[in-house]
Amino acid sequence: MKKQDIIFGIHAVEALLNNSPERVIELWLLQGRDDERLMPIVNAASQAGVKSQRAARKVLDDKAESTQHQGVVARVKAAKVLSEADLDGLLNELSAADKTPFFLILDGVTDPHNLGACLRNADAAGVHGVIVPKDNSVGLTAVVSKVACGAAEIVPLFQVTNLARTMRHIQEQGVWIVGTAGEADSNVYQADLKGALAIAMGAEGKGLRRLTRESCDSLISIPMAGSVSSLNVSVATGICLFEAVRQRLG
Ligand SMILES: C[S@@+](CC[C@H](N)C(=O)[O-])C[C@H]1O[C@@H](n2cnc3c(N)ncnc32)[C@H](O)[C@@H]1O
């Protein structure tokens, strides 16, 4: 298991400092860059009692293994991997607080940009947790954190060994699982997405695996008017989550 990670980018590092400052081992800021954009980081670090050091751009590029760090790189203790047991804990908390569960399942998303964008969508939509299979999925990498713009440090990500079993388990707790597939007969705007819900999205190339699809309570499509056969998974995730939000607010 990985013990340390790199997180970079202004929003990702700011969320980290605000939510889990105890994870920060070292924090580097670009030398000579005292502009407004770094002030939230400087303030969050000083509030959290985290020391930072200044470094040249080349040093930050090397630490981040990317030039997309926006002048901020942190070396952090790896985030705790959340499991099925943690998911049970969250379901109990939601029930005690009389909240209606709202989950996102990603069945084998492998592109870090897609996972980052899905986490950002999930946070914006108020999703309580994202469930992914441990194998054949990208984990919480530095690129995922950067693209998620802070959401990767906030939205709980449950990495489960057996996705079909976890789906059965949350169904037993009253969660209705809606899978998404372009060829489904009923569409996202016809579905009832108001109750305890998990929306399941498929992988970039293959879509939902057979067992995942068979484990869903219903399947929905997003109507496609043009000539392409499918949407990018993060775009499709945003559409489905926010249709659910629209219904749940109404
Ligand atoms: C790029 S698509 C996968 C395409 C794959 N060839 C398939 O047949 O499912 C990735 C995921 O985005 C979601 N998605 C994309 N377009 C969709 C649509 N029109 N309706 C429902 N879901 C869609 C589904 O979850 C799908 O598994």
Automatic annotation (TrEMBL):
Key word Transferase present: yes
Location in or out of the cell: Cytoplasm
Cited SUPFAM superfamilies: alpha/beta knot, L30e-like
Binding site for S-adenosyl-L-methionine: 202, 222, 231
InterPro entries the UniProt entry points to: 23S_rRNA_MeTrfase_RlmB (IPR024915), Alpha/beta_knot_MTases (IPR029028), Ribosomal_eL30-like_sf (IPR029064), rRNA_MeTrfase_TrmH (IPR004441), SpoU_MeTrfase (IPR001537), SpoU_subst-bd (IPR013123), tRNA_m1G_MTases_N (IPR029026)
Record-listed E.C. numbers: 2.1.1.185
A Gene Ontology cellular-component term: cytosol
Predominant location: cytoplasm
Keyword annotations from UniProtKB, A to Z: Cytoplasm, Methyltransferase, rRNA processing, S-adenosyl-L-methionine, Transferase
Listed Pfam families: SpoU_methylase, SpoU_sub_bind
CDD domains xref list: SpoU-like_RlmB (cd18103)
Molecular function terms from GO: RNA binding; rRNA (guanosine-2'-O-)-methyltransferase activity
Domain RNA 2-O ribose methyltransferase substrate binding: start-end pairs: 6-82
Gene3D superfamilies: 3.30.1330.30, 3.40.1280.10
Leading EC class: transferase
Reactions catalysed: guanosine(2251) in 23S rRNA + S-adenosyl-L-methionine = 2'-O-methylguanosine(2251) in 23S rRNA + S-adenosyl-L-homocysteine + H(+)
PANTHER family recorded: 23S RRNA (GUANOSINE-2'-O-)-METHYLTRANSFERASE RLMB
Family: Belongs to the class IV-like SAM-binding methyltransferase superfamily. RNA methyltransferase TrmH family. RlmB subfamily.
NCBIfam families, sorted: PRK11181.1 (NF008386), rRNA_methyl_3 (TIGR00186)
Role this protein plays: Specifically methylates the ribose of guanosine 2251 in 23S rRNA.
Record's protein name: 23S rRNA (guanosine-2'-O-)-methyltransferase RlmB
